[in-house]
Amino acid sequence: AGAAAAVDHTIDTINRDHALLHELLERQNYRLAFWRTARQDLGYRRFFDINTLIGLRTEHEQVFADIHELLFQWLGSNTEVDGVRVDHPDGLLDPEQYLTRLRERVPSGWIVVEKILMPDEHMRASWPVSGTTGYDFINQVMGLFIDPDSEETLTRFYGDFTGETRTFPDILREKKLQILRQVLGSDLNLLTSMLSNICERHPHHRDYTRQELHEALRELMVDFPVYRTYVRPRVGHVSEEDARVIAQVFQCVMTRRPNLGSDLLGFIRDILLLKIPGDLESDFVARFQQVTAPVMAKSAEDTAFYCYHRFIALNEVGGDPGRYGITVEQFHTWCQDMQRHWPNTMLATSTHDTKRSEDVRARLAVLSEMPARWIETVSAWSSNHTRCWGAHTPDHNFEYFLYQTLVGVWPLEEARAWPYFEKAMREAKVHTSWTDSQKDYEESIRSFVRSLYENEEFIQELDCFVEGLDTFGQQNSLAQTLIKLTAPGIPDFYQGAELWNFSLVDPDNRRPVDYDVRRWWLRELSELSPEAIWQRRKEGLPKLWLIQQGLRIRRERPQAFGHTGSYVPLYARGEQSTSVVSFMRGGEVIAIAPRLRLHAQGGWPHTVIDLPPGQWRQELDGRVFDSGACRLDEVLRPFPVGLLCKVG
Question: Residues 609, 614, 615, 616: is their CA dihedral positive or negative?
Fold first, then answer.
């Protein structure tokens, strides 16, 4: 008790004497600073811009062992843990080293990495993993349901309605500059200091000013086309892909900013390509690669995606909002590549980090098939709601984003809507932000949203409009679910997505899930016919049932999937041949997934698919079809997708 009293007395004395308090703090191994200082001056590595999440040096063997101790206990015991999902591998000093160590401890386990691949980027073949966590699949499968014929029309309308005529790459570049200036400035400043120290060791380069080095590094990061490269300075390895990316970046900067000088840019390029050896150079290369990833993530996913609203269904992690859909042939090519190289990759359609759930995107995709009606509807809504802005200046870019959001998620109660819209406008960092909120602007949006929810006529119109999309959106969702169940890889089902799930970005997509309801429906499904299940689609039963049947087929016919299962594209013939994607797995399972359903809403007249030799049972209703030409209006009745298995 006496010791405690003495300690309390000392603390009280120090707290009342600023000089003593300052002296105590100066003795620590850190310096306290105003939180905004972290934007430009920070002495440690962190997770993105979150100051309280300090980076650990996982490359050190003891650190690796300590932070994985519990995980390895789980994996080494008789628990149900048999795999590892590695989040944010791009933040590691040497991802390949880390994954190799992990694989040594998990020799037969399933390891997938949350590697965000740009549209033309591929997973590193040298990584000892099963694949990614599925964001690449999300964007591939979503592209199937976007009608490319509407791109020009909707792009022109977006520019006319909002006044935003910049392309997504233009906006992304602007946001990278903003992030490097306002959010990750301390990381860029540290790299500048590291490069300055390197220059001091090279007489030919020591006269570059700090400003020149800072500007050159900034421009390189702005033009970086991928999250990061994986040069390994400790082992002296530069892959062909990394060399190509680095050469591309430097050529872009040289073309756009020749005033920076080829001498300086060439010097930095040679350091990154390990042509200039040294400990300082190696540390610089490693740190440079750890910075480009958060720059891309914060600029694209967390900022530009909230600014560019041409078609928000495309604004998804790992996606490119500037790319408007893919062809069936492109999808088949991607699947064949997965089967050859990553047959056990994860296939996701929703995750804890997706901007919108799979069912929201599936419904929004329908808008690409009806551009004229969508444009007419938005124009009418905006005209009718001019008065809702009151004395505030309308923000039509946000207004267009708002209408798309409401259509995609509806019904959406105002209590969920407002926190999301508040997050969206702050993430955009245009008129307001988390660290510099502008109350007048936010109140203008708040007032507009409130006025819409109080407008009964608008709510009725929105109800009616969404009702007209709903069936087509549900068909899209079932089609992408079927593809996920049967394409090369391991299907992943996010919590709550077993039924229709219309969720937005976190925290909206992390609401509690009622699993009792799902268990109850699973028991009820066995008593219902396919026709009855489809008629109960408002409750989400078709999706739950399709997942159940697809997983059953995977369990009964494992040889058709994984590394043993081949992937063979099948093509329809006839009037609606482009409105379906189909393929065969392992010679014994066929998936038939309709797409662009508005084009095929009149049915499938004179459209057939050629079934391979043998007899094929439609697993969703038990009917058997012979080989040869099979009419789609037969196989896709009464359920809107086809899952066929070879008989015998």
Answer: negative
What does DSSP assign to residue 593? E
**Rounded Cα gap, residues 118 and 18, in angstroms:** 53
209's enclosing H/E stretch is none
Q: Nearest CA to 519 among 494, 544, 497, 537? A: 544
Report the distance separating Cα 289 and Cα 50, nearest Å.
19
Contact 291, 184 (CB under 8 A): yes
Asked which of 447, 465, 483 is the last residue of a domain, the reply is 465
DSSP track, 54-98: EPP-TTSHHHHHHHTHHHHHHHHTTSS--EEEE--GGGSS-HHHH
Helices and strands, number each (H, E), in the chain: 24, 14
Cis check for the bond before 128: say yes or no (omega within 30 of 0). Answer: no
| Mean pLDDT lowest among 119-133, 518-532, 597-611 | 597-611
* Helix runs in 589-648, H state only: 632-635
- Unique residue bearing structure tokens 């929105």: 462
Contacts of 582 (CB under 8 A, 6+ apart): 569, 570, 571, 572, 590, 591, 592, 593, 609, 642
Q: Which residues pair with 594 in a beta bridge?
A: 580
Separation CA 484–CA 140 (nearest Å):
11
Q: Which two tokens stand for residue 240?
A: 């062909």
Domain containing 330 equals 150-162+313-334+360-465
570 with 550, same domain: the answer is no
The secondary structure element, H or E, covering residue 420 is helix 414-428
240 within a domain of the structure (yes/no):
yes
The closest of 485, 122, 480, 491 to 333, measured between CA atoms, is 122
3-state DSSP percent of the chain in helix, strand and coil, to 5? 55, 10, 35
Q: Tell me if 448 sits within 8 A of 388, measured CB to CB.
A: yes
Rounded Cα–Cα distance for residues 185 and 572 (Å): 54
pLDDT score at 105: 93
pLDDT averaged over the chain?
96
- 255-266 in b/e burial notation, b at 16+ Cβ within 10 A? eebeebeeebbe
CATH number, domain with residue 577: 2.60.40
Q: Six-digit token pair at 578?
A: 């482009």
At 406, is the secondary structure helix, strand, or coil? helix
Please tell me the pTM assigned to this model.
0.95
pLDDT-derived band of residue 542, with 50, 70 and 90 as boundaries? Answer: very high
Residue 308 domain flag: no
pLDDT of residue 77 exceeding 90, the answer is: no
Cβ pair 347, 494 in contact under 8 A: no
Q: Specify the residue for token string 């206990």.
A: 73
β-pair partners for 84: 111
At 153-185, the pLDDT tens digits run 999 999 999 999 999 999 999 999 999 999 999
Q: Are residues 28 and 71 located together in one domain of the fold?
A: no
Q: What span, in angstroms and rounded, lies between the C-alpha atoms of 397 and 391?
A: 18
Q: pLDDT at residue 600 above 80? A: no
Return the H-helix or E-strand segment holding 347. strand 346-347
Helix (H, G, I), strand (E, B), or coil: what is residue 356? strand
Task: Mark residue 409 as left, alpha or beta (left: phi above 0; alpha: psi -120 to 50; beta: remaining).
Answer: alpha
Q: With contact defined as beta carbons under 8 Å apart, do 371 and 420 qualify? A: no
Distance CA 590, CA 174 (A): 46
Across the range 491-513, mean pLDDT stands at 97
Same domain, 126 and 157: no
